[in-house]
């Protein structure tokens, strides 16, 4: 492979001293090569941001959001302070943030709206139907780093995918991958929002890309459709009301007032994405890792509620869902069954767990049975 070398360069174009491989590097050609290698590895787009870019607005916005308590029980959001917005505090010497995106919609998944409108079915956010994306993206980013090292020699870096105090959407926006939508997710004119993000922090001062514009316009469909009205203002989410937070991050009892609004969404919620006009451009994934497993795209609440802990652990090995554990899974399913059309099958399933060893599960089962004018017997 042709090495991308030119005359020795000892400074970033902005004048910041840096440690480059000993032969010097043609930085523009290296940036182009990184993007080409990224696409070979399965990323649909790769863009580069200056790690020293202005982040004062994002930083103050983060602290204001935390100050209002919108992060709920996600203490890790407050734990790392400015390291979220200042890459060099997290990884010393970082000059660039290379952001990548990878599509995740499985090609053969049941239509999401059809599943959500069938109260006997369990709706699972489409990103979670296959293998855990953390492992997939970090593995590919590591391969990208290995390719860079094979060309230029040793360089400093660290890869991330929703795995450390990194403001992924902000850096993706700075890099030009897209813009932050009013639902707070990243949007792309070419791909909507049905994709994962990942980052590679590096001390290689490659040229940066330009941010895109914001193309949400006056549209408020994502705000209007949110079942729990968790999007309290454009670009502002109260996670404490968000179904994704309630079914995944929240560990305790789900507030009773919100339970009926959750419907049959037992792991995550895609409403704000599904309604977004830009997602008409969302493409299905070509990654086998994200293909539907265990028929989770079109499965009944009753069937999932019957899984033992052993079945849960075995069937969902390698799945992001397994992270929440069997107890929380049953809690979510009990809420879904409470919102399901009344039937003998639904009430019989709920009654099998009236004496569940978990008080959390028992509480939600009792609530669900009351919704069907039934009690534990």
Automatic annotation (TrEMBL):
Please report a single Pfam family linked to this protein.
Fer4_16
Q: Where does [4Fe-4S] cluster 1 bind?
A: 216, 219, 222, 276
Please provide the Gene Ontology terms (biological process) for this protein.
Answer: tRNA queuosine(34) biosynthetic process
Entry's Gene Ontology cellular component terms: cytoplasm
Query: The 4Fe-4S ferredoxin-type domain covers which part of the protein?
Result: 204-236
Primary subcellular site in the record, as a coarse category: cytoplasm
Cofactors named for this entry: [4Fe-4S] cluster; cob(II)alamin
Pathways per UniProt? tRNA modification; tRNA-queuosine biosynthesis
The task this protein performs is described as: Catalyzes the conversion of epoxyqueuosine (oQ) to queuosine (Q), which is a hypermodified base found in the wobble positions of tRNA(Asp), tRNA(Asn), tRNA(His) and tRNA(Tyr).
Q: What is this protein called?
A: Epoxyqueuosine reductase
Top-down, what is the taxonomic lineage of the species of origin?
Bacteria, Pseudomonadati, Pseudomonadota, Betaproteobacteria, Nitrosomonadales
Name the gene that codes for it. Answer: queG
């Amino acid at each position: 492979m042709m090495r991308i070398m030119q005359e020795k360069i000892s400074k970033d174009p902005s004048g910041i001293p840096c440690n480059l491989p000993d032969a010097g590097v043609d930085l523009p050609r290296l940036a182009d090569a990184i993007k080409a290698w990224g696409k070979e590895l399965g990323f649909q787009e790769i863009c580069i941001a200056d790690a020293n870019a202005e982040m004062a607005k994002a930083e103050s916005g983060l602290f204001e959001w935390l100050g209002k308590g919108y992060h709920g029980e996600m203490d890790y959001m407050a734990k790392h302070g400015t390291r979220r917005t200042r890459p060099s505090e997290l990884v010393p010497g970082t000059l660039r943030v290379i952001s990548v995106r990878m599509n995740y919609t499985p090609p053969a998944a049941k239509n999401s709206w059809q599943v959500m409108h069938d109260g006997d079915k369990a709706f699972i956010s489409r990103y979670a139907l296959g293998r855990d994306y953390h492992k997939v993206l970090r593995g590919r980013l590591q391969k990208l780093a290995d390719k860079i090292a094979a060309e230029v020699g040793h360089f400093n870096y660290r890869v991330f995918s929703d795995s450390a105090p990194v403001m992924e959407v902000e850096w993706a926006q700075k890099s030009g991958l897209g813009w932050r939508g009013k639902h707070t997710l990243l949007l792309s004119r070419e791909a909507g929002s049905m994709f994962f993000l990942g980052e590679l922090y590096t001390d290689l001062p490659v040229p940066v890309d330009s941010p895109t514009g914001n193309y949400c316009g006056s549209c408020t469909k994502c705000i209007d459709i949110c079942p729990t009205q968790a999007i309290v203002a454009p670009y502002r989410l109260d996670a404490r009301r968000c179904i994704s937070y309630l079914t995944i991050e929240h560990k305790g009892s789900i507030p009773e007032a919100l339970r009926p609004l959750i419907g049959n969404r037992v792991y995550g919620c895609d409403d704000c994405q599904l309604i977004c006009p830009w997602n008409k451009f969302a493409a299905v994934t070509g990654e086998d890792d994200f293909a539907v497993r265990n028929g989770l795209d079109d499965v009944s609440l009753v069937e999932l509620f019957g899984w033992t802990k052993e079945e849960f652990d075995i069937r969902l090995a390698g799945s992001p869902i397994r992270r929440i554990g069997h107890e929380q899974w049953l809690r979510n399913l009990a809420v879904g069954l409470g919102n399901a059309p009344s039937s003998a099958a639904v009430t019989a399933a709920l009654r099998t767990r009236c004496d569940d060893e978990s008080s959390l599960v028992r509480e939600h089962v009792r609530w669900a049975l009351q919704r069907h004018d039934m009690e534990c017997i």
